[in-house]
Design brief:
It is built from eleven helices and six strands. By secondary structure, the protein is of the alpha/beta class. It has two domains: about 150 residues, 3-Layer(aba) Sandwich (Rossmann fold), CATH 3.40.50.2300; about 70 residues, Arc Repressor Mutant, subunit A (Orthogonal Bundle). It has a six-stranded parallel sheet, with helices on both faces. α3 runs parallel beside α4, α8 packs across α10 and α8 packs across α11.
């Protein structure tokens, strides 16, 4: 292990020994739910932590700013629940959820996202998340969602689960249509469906905004799609979202 890596590990272990090791028990011996908060916006993480600070039954053991860090901290601090945004750098929330289901199947996953497209909610539920909370209803729903998943139940914010899926094409038709798309167009399709802007996609892929627009127009022409909602449903149904 390099000097820098060893220093980071030592620093983390010191923090965890002083702060994290005793987490899980509040004053009076009452057990608390240990929570890892993940969002790429610091202000939003602070807002969630502020909400949970008002409830003795929850304690935030760590916070992560991207998907890769979320997986690493989940492995290290072993939270009871991870609050997970979907639009994360490096690894998006759906990718994180998939990996957690393989590596830490007992951890509860509460998605907290601005994405309200029911197709995305269905995809998250299919992966095995325990709750899906809309950011527009964070104050109203988050605590209820955490309480329910801690008891082994499920939760979806009102209005997010009413969804009639588009008819899925047959496997042959789907493969034929996907074959029309280049790898880059599939990447752009997944990112658009995840709610990223052209500028965000350009930054992640290292290309210009103009090039993103060109990829976007070509893939929508190839699929004969004219709006983002339909594109998102196709991405979910075809398993492209979160790739």
């Amino acid at each position: 292990m390099g000097t820098r890596a060893a220093f980071v590990d030592t620093l983390f272990n010191t923090w965890y020994t002083r702060i994290g090791a005793g987490i899980g028990v509040r004053k009076g011996g009452r057990m608390s739910v240990r929570v890892l908060v993940t969002d790429d916006h610091g202000v939003l993480r602070e807002g969630v932590i502020s909400i949970l600070d008002d409830y003795a039954e929850f304690v935030v053991v760590a916070e992560a700013r991207d998907g890769e860090q979320a997986l690493e901290l989940a492995r290290r601090v072993q939270p009871d629940v991870i609050i997970l945004d979907l639009m994360l750098p490096i690894l998006d929330g759906l990718q994180v959820a998939r990996r957690l289901r393989r590596t830490q199947p007992d951890v509860k996953i509460v998605v907290l996202s601005a994405l309200a497209e029911p197709a995305v909610v269905d995809q998250a539920k299919a992966i095995g998340v325990d709750a899906y909370v809309s950011k527009t209803r964070c104050v109203e729903d988050l605590v209820d969602a955490l309480r329910l998943v801690a008891q082994g139940e499920k939760f979806v914010s009102p209005g997010l689960s009413r969804y009639t899926p588009v008819v899925k094409p047959s496997g042959t038709d789907r493969n034929r249509q996907l074959d029309l798309l280049t790898l880059r167009e599939r990447q752009v399709m997944s990112m658009i469906a995840s709610g990223l802007t052209n500028k965000q996609i350009a930054h992640r892929l290292g290309i210009s905004v103009h090039t993103v627009r060109s990829h976007r127009q070509r893939l929508m022409d190839k699929l004969d799609v004219h709006d983002i909602a339909t594109l998102t449903r196709i991405a979910v149904n075809w398993g492209v979202l979160g790739q």
